Amino acid sequence: MLIQGEIISNSYWDTIAEEINERLQVCSQIAMAELAAQLQVGSELISSVLESRLGTLIKGRLEGGQLYTPAYVARVNAMVRGAARGITVPMNLSALWSSLQQLLQGMDGATGVAVDNSFFQTLFNGLVKEVEILGSLRAGVHWTPAVFASAQKEFVDSFLSQNAFISYDSLHKLGIPQPIQYLQSRYPEGIPLFTMFIHPSMIEMLDATLEDAIERNSWIDSLSVLPSLCGSQDAYKILSLCPSVQSALKSNRALIVGESYVLSDGFIKDVFTRLDKEMETSISLSSAAGLIDEKHPTKDSKGGNNSGRLSELNETSTESGNRPGTERGSKKKKGKSAGSTRNSAPENDLDNQEPVPSKSKKNQKKGKDTSTSHVPESKRSKEDGPSVPSEDWIINNILTLVPEFEEQGVDDLDTILKPLANHLRPMLVTSWNERRKAMLAENSDRMKRVLDNLQKKLDESYMNIMLYEKALDLFEDDQATFVVLHRHLLRTIGASIADMLLFNLDVYNKLKNGIAVEESQSVEPVALSSGERNSLAKNLHGALSVKAVALVESLEGKKVDTFITALSTLVEESGLFLKKFDKKLEKTLLHSYRKDLTSQVSMETDPVSLLPKVVSLLYLKFHNKALQAPGRAMAIAVSRLKDKLDDSAFKTLMDYHSATVTLLSLMSASTNDEDDCASDRITAKKELLESLMPTLKGLVVGTSPPKDAS
């Protein structure tokens, strides 16, 4: 052959082959690269030359660029066989070959040649083919010994037969990458779930337990019967395969909630009956709107004690009631008042329906009471539908009425309570609406009476405040007194009107929404706190609520005009109306007021209460105005009568006022000790006032009003 310009005979290569063979038998292994370097030829050439002489001139085996003697091949083959037989778990063969390479290098030392992985792999494949090692090879390098596969099978068979289930995680730990396919191929009668594989016997066992629970009108958590590794999704799938559950669901004898809980129809009906009864007693009663806390009538909407909220403006002040001249006296009694408002409570979550006021004024004749001819309706916004009872209310009451959920250790109560509440809520809403419809039918007559009475009271109270407001103009030049008189009128007559209006609108709203309101609860409280007024106002709906809040805010202002405007707006929105206050009506009211007040002065025996009534009559006499002045403005009111009275009468009035102020100061500072010298002074002052009473009464009693003092 011609190689790189040189002619080489075959006999030369035979001689080279003999030399290589002698060397090979000594070294056991020779690298082809080393031979090519020595002969100064290419590795491919030397490989092709030697391959044709293997088995004849060269007693060896060429593998992976290496020449090995048969004895060396047999030794490595034995090492591979021994190592493979020692493996009991799945293994990647690349790691095994690395271990064998290190072992051979340690044995052969510096003279050894690195054995290629392909040599080991070829020997391994031959051993597998000859069935000298047992197992399965995947992707050429992933070896699973037969002993491991046998252990896998024995474990799976044993576990499944003992427990009727096996989890996919356990198969993953055993080295089975596709557990579902593996199990289905081996156990075709089994049932694959989300996290485990079960035997049909488990369904039979669970089915018997569920059937018993349904027959007993009880409930059961299937997870309490199933293996602890079973999840809610697995439980739901098993339940769907249970014949008793399938039959019960079709006939509406059972309900599945939270994927694993089975509730019998008898149990659900029992819970509904108890909830319905609880709703009837706790929601549909008078406290359903949460506006008046009957147990704590003296607490405001924030829960604070309001026993002193009716603080006295002044002992000498007079306050108008529902008609001119009605005296509340120097000490006001604290009556039953509206209390704690719980707008966030579930049982107060009423239908979002608001009274629609009638805007028509054509049927309202001026100066006449036409309130009995119609009932106010609400300006309807979009109705959100019934929301009684709320989900929270149902859940809280289920826990109270059905304590076995907690007693039986339900881990996550929401998984059963929320679905059960959502299932029961439409039924309870239907029951609520039916009860409310029946209540509305019963309430219709009362609603009309409430509005009729409200209109009558409103007419009377509105005439009073308009009458008293006329007298305030006399003090317009004294801004400080002017503000005091306005605030006094707002906090007495104005507050009384607001309380009466808000309370009755609230009662009407309850009746309209089908809430039972007992007759005893329809009696207006003596007075409401600012917080209670706000609660009542905010409990109304839409524009009515906004205008009611504005009315409450106007009570804290300085002008009666602002209150009158807010009152007029709210009354119009409510479908009611305010009588027109004209000269003729004013004259009639003043005459009635003068007559009533004169009678009171004649019969008055309390020296302190006499003064403001006398002053009011004097203002009627000289100004034809009905004045309501608090104690702090009494001095100014008296001083302005100087030009109207003669000196003697004015001195009597001033002396009486001075003595009254002194008496009230002594009484305020008194310790109620009989030995206290202040007691004697109080007695003396009372006697002085009592002696002056006939003279003071003489200033107004027996006098006739001026013909025209307006």
For the biggest sheet, the summary is: 3 strands, antiparallel
Q: Overall 3D geometry?
A: elongated
- How many alpha or pi helices? 25
Structural class: mainly alpha
Q: How many distinct domains?
A: 4
Can you list the strand order of the major beta sheet? Answer: 3-5-4
Rg calc: 52 Å
Distance between the termini: 151 Å
| Average of the residue pLDDT scores | 74
User: Low-confidence segments, ≥5 residues, pLDDT <50?
Assistant: 284-387, 703-710
The total of beta strands comes to: 14
Helix content: 55-70%
- Beta-strand level of the residues, as a percent range? 5-15%
Task: State the gist of this model.
The chain is mainly alpha-helical and 710 residues long. The protein is 56% helix and 6% strand. The chain folds into 4 domains: 2-136, no CATH class; 164-263, no CATH class; 289-574, no CATH class; 584-698, no CATH class.
